[in-house]
Specification:
Blueprint: E1 2-3, H1 10-16, E2 30-31, E3 36-42, H2 51-65, E4 68-74, H3 80-87, E5 95-100, H4 102-113, H5 118-121, E6 126-130, H6 136-144, H7 152-165, E7 167-178, E8 182-186, E9 189-193, H8 194-201, H9 211-222, E10 227-235, E11 254-255, E12 260-261, E13 291-292, E14 297-304, E15 308-310, E16 313-314, E17 326-332, H10 337-347, E18 360-372, E19 379-381, E20 384-386, E21 391-403
Helix pairs in contact: 2-7, 3-4, 6-7, 8-9
């Protein structure tokens, strides 16, 4: 339905938010038109179940004053948003707004990447409004804009204010490929081990909102697990060395949740998806210019491309929307529960690396590969569970656009 409401909310918000820093030279910025037409994809079950109420109470009045007309699409089942944006005529909207957690935006990104016109579709600015439990991208955008750390309705107000201003810029995505032949596009992060265990095991406490992660962390600490596998990566830097071996053209690669087989490039099919030029096929050795981690016992592996892992977890303070970098963290086995808890408490301030924990390693990379020895543990992409299997990924710079404060 099309909603136009006017209440004096935007003016008060303007007095509370300083102007964000000026864009860096070379950044490609745009501004949403006025009036603006927004499709809002909203999951009423996300987080503590208040997304629709919060949208009507907080977001709608501000958008009406900013001349942003909204059409609300309520998701009713998993992959509903994925199907909607994959099949919809997007020309009737100027921006796609996701009012939910990070999982719904993951659906939207992969639905757009399945379109024959994905290159044009990915130019449509995306916007995240926090309505879930973790709200990592919303917290990251709030951080990039230079605003103070906030949560819950204050974070929602900040992100709505950013949407009202209408500035949008480019964002990197990471292409992830699995041994079973699936391919996904990710905007936030890939994990295996402790962090993913907390994320998925705490789903049953969703009604607690963000407090579910605190409870989940304590429970996973009590049964701390070690995972066995091989981790390899291509360090970030100008030197790339030799190109990897070409992929066997007969090997099927599928994309996103629906598992569509990708059409090979050069067949005349519309808009072939970007090639993973840094990756050798799974099952073959990594290229010679990659680093193989000597340890093979891990408490966690997490590859993140935004600053925040959750509203209260500043995992990669140096990350930016289009820095061309995957921020790879891995924790070697042998860490005590007390030391692990101290690291996560420090992560709330972004000071975990200052502790110089010998078990925690951080390296900026452009690509990585993870090969579990056995199919044990939970893997996640953007907070959504994956089957545990060999996986690899590489950064694709500036592949989509997102509404941002700076």
């Amino acid at each position: 339905m099309l909603l136009r409401m006017a209440k004096p909310s935007l003016g008060s918000a303007l007095t509370q938010h300083p102007e964000p820093p000026l864009p860096a030279p070379g950044d490609s910025y745009g501004v949403l038109p006025r009036p603006c037409r927004a499709l809002v994809l909203l999951n009423p079950q996300s987080g503590s179940g208040r997304a629709l109420d919060d949208f009507q109470a907080v977001v709608q009045p501000m958008l009406a004053e900013a001349e942003i007309a909204t059409t609300i699409f309520i998701t009713e089942r998993p992959h509903h948003a994925h199907e909607k944006v994959r099949d919809e005529d997007l020309s009737q909207w100027d921006t796609l707004v996701v009012m939910s957690g990070d999982g719904l935006l993951y659906e939207v990104v992969n639905g757009l990447m399945e379109r024959p016109d994905w290159k044009d579709a990915m130019k449509k600015p995306l916007c995240i409004l926090p309505g879930g439990s973790g709200n990592a991208l919303a917290a990251s955008i709030n951080y990039y804009a230079g605003y103070d750390h906030v949560a819950k309705k204050k974070l929602l107000t900040n992100c709505t204010f950013i949407l009202c201003k209408g500035l949008h810029t480019q964002m990197d995505l990471v292409s992830l490929s699995t041994a079973s032949g699936k391919r996904f596009f990710s905007f936030l992060g890939f994990g295996w081990g402790f962090i993913s265990d907390v994320d998925i095991d705490s789903e049953k406490y969703r009604w607690l909102g963000s407090a579910r992660f605190t409870l989940g962390t304590l429970q996973c600490l009590a049964k701390l697990r070690v995972y066995h596998g091989r981790l390899s990566y291509l360090p970030a830097g100008p030197e790339q060395g030799s190109a990897p071996a070409p992929r066997d053209p007969s090997t099927p690669v599928t994309n996103g949740q629906a598992g569509h087989v990708l059409v090979p490039a050069g067949t005349g099919a519309p808009a072939s998806l970007p090639a993973d030029s840094l990756l050798a096929p799974l099952g073959q050795p990594v290229p010679a210019n990659w680093t193989v981690v000597p340890e093979e016992e891990f408490v966690l592996v997490y590859a993140i491309y935004q600053s925040h892992l959750g509203t209260n977890l500043l995992m990669a303070p140096a990350a930016r929307l289009h820095d061309g970098c995957i921020h790879l963290f891995y924790m070697k086995a042998g860490i005590s529960r007390v030391a692990l808890l101290k690291l996560f408490l420090a992560m709330s301030r972004g000071t975990h690396l200052d502790l110089n924990c010998p078990h925690l390693c951080y390296v900026p990379v452009r690509a990585f590969r993870l090969e579990p020895r056995v199919a044990a543990g939970i893997m996640t992409v953007d907070g959504e569970a994956l089957a545990c299997e060999p996986v690899q990924g590489q950064i694709h710079g500036r592949l989509c656009r997102v509404v941002s404060g700076s």
